[in-house]
């Protein structure tokens, strides 16, 4: 494909070639615009939102604004209200090569070559020239507020700047989101250093094109806070909406606010009078919903009060095998210890309301008791059935955190035999001195039978084994060929050289990449993602099933896909040599790693080569002659990909995002499912290339949707909790390090520590403790930022085959491209959906991670059992008050219990994570090399036990 042209669009049987990639040719102050066909120079075209586009553009509704106009002699002039495009100054984020976890991001956020942006707790610092979107002296309106000259002058809702005679006045008005012209053509906007703006309307129907202005910056922090963060609890459910009279809704926030304003719980009649309601039906439904969510509590006298004002905590129980539990509060406050006697029948995973009992014998940790169970998490439990005589039996749960065996009467055993793996349904919940009761609903094999171990984990986590017939029927109706009549409105990229790079065993290929070197020295990176949203439409049977699954689950011996294989491995998979639909993101990236221009649009593509990480690594690192000859057409491209990858990594490093490099443990199985080998997989340059490219695509799409102001899903990672940060600093002080926390904590502070410890003896322990201090990433309908990635706008876009949030993001993009703007009703519905999608996706992701980890741990134990009694060299990977975990070179970990360390009494220091002998003063800390003997490997407990090998000869050999 010629570098100077945009992709060709197919429109029925007619082909049109896109306009020049450059918006125009350079003049003294900027670029000349290319005149649009049928538009005379100087002709004014009125835009809907107030700004005027003068000559050279047929596109009303430009959607973005700036306060300057260009004096291009070719006829294109933009007055007040032309596009103020997304910034290159926002930071970068990505998904790792496996597209399932967030990759670390490093680099410094800049607002252009002469200005710099740094965000600490959402605050911006601008250095260098003035960063106003308009020309010097213009004033902008941010949601109606004037911003002084020289400062950030953009608005989240589309700031309109004044120019010329109106200079100094803040205009009203609002640009419509999007960059689509009324004619269906896209508007390309170029921002230039001199402040000029050029507008071009290429004939590619339906695409979205934008450029990034280098000298501007905007802080998106908190933009969706009001309508996003409270969406889950601030919107009415359908049944409340049906009760509304002529659209007048009783808002849940209003009910909650009214209860908070009163200093005592209220009866429903009293609350109804205060809200001036003719009847209490709707109010009662809302109160019940708030009660289910734990926002309010109904007292024994049928009064409703706010949980927090009643000193109650709502959250999820984290059980312990010994029977007690910890409440993990929703508000992220300190965990509450709850003894077995105070659980009131609640079990691990249940959502409950608890009240504090003060400080207990466990030190300063708050103790509490469960007063209400809001949601049960264990209606069905997987375990091993054990008989006790002929009258009854017990099911011992696989999940040890449940803390109870389930009593099963004889008439509810369903023919299960002693030692069988079963699924038991709870019929009676536990009481203080009474086990829960249940009935067996499924027995699926004896413990130890081939395949039963993995099947037990699948059933334990409730992973769906088969697709319902209705879903398979809908999937079967989808053609496995790309029809020519469906090409309308898409870029034709079938002649553009591109490849997929994945693991050897990957079958669901949802991303491809292309790369060109432009005449100006920049790179033109193309990331092409399978257009799954074209096939999986909203509210279809496929969509409903994908929502319930949330993600594909990659177990050690199988994949449980989010979509049926005829889609995930078929028409949606970017297989080589066949036509496929995709959503393509083209990014022009300069030598500093900044995106200066991007384009997003639907496309039809054809993959040239299906590459693997191994083959690309051998080409780049080893110059394998056979592979270089086989893929001769792409060797130079791979070299350029490596160059761009290193540029992007360097930018991330300068920005200071966290960078943990923990290799992944890989288990190799034979045909019967038994482990043959276990090893650590180091990331190669091929993995890093895909990681960096997906990173840029995710960030670019997040910025694009944010600036269009349409509801979407974001990948967020909040700052560490204050108490964890304090504990981390206490630990780091022992090594002479400190993370400043006054005025806000920035990930750069963490990255500085990681850089300082690199290559030092304490590197392993510092990495581990810092990682444990961080919160878990999740999905949210608001752009809350991603701390670990040091980015404020990040989404998941690159894996729609295997992750539901990515599919949702594709669907929103597709809708904006097709309709240009969204109605108020559609935006309201999307906002409600995003809150629900975020909760479900986060929940299913966590379930998938736990199931995947447990299957790997199971096979590790099964593999190492054959080496019982043998001696291994390893290192201390973790230290606790009951012993230390030892990691072997292949990634297998086992416990050395403190009771087996017989040469002394060892004391645990929780400040520096060490075990120290009381008399010998011998100390063990994370990273120390040790020699151990394998003494136990239990498949039932998934536990490996080591004992330290002592003796002068062995210690000398180890040294």
Please give a quick description of this structure:
With 959 residues, the protein is α+β, with helices and mostly antiparallel strands.
Features:
five-stranded antiparallel beta sheet, 959 residues, disordered C terminus, eight-stranded mixed beta sheet
Outline the structure in words.
With 959 residues, the protein is of the alpha+beta class. The protein is 25% helix and 26% strand. The chain contains 20 helices and 48 strands. Helix 13 (632-655) crosses helix 14 and helix 15 (722-733) runs antiparallel to helix 17. It is globular, with a radius of gyration of 30 Å. Residues 1-101, 103-208, 213-249 and 952-959 have low confidence and may be disordered.
The tally of beta strands, per DSSP, is 48
Query: Helicity, in percent?
Result: 10-25%
Give the rounded overall mean pLDDT: 75
Compute the CA-based radius of gyration: 30 Å
Largest β sheet strand count, sense and barrel closure: 8 strands, mixed
Uncertain residue ranges: 1-101, 103-208, 213-249, 952-959
Principal-axis shape: globular
Number of helices: 20
β-strand percent reads 25-35%
Oligomer classification: single chain
Distance between the termini: 60 Å
In terms of structural class, how would the helical and strand content be classed? alpha+beta
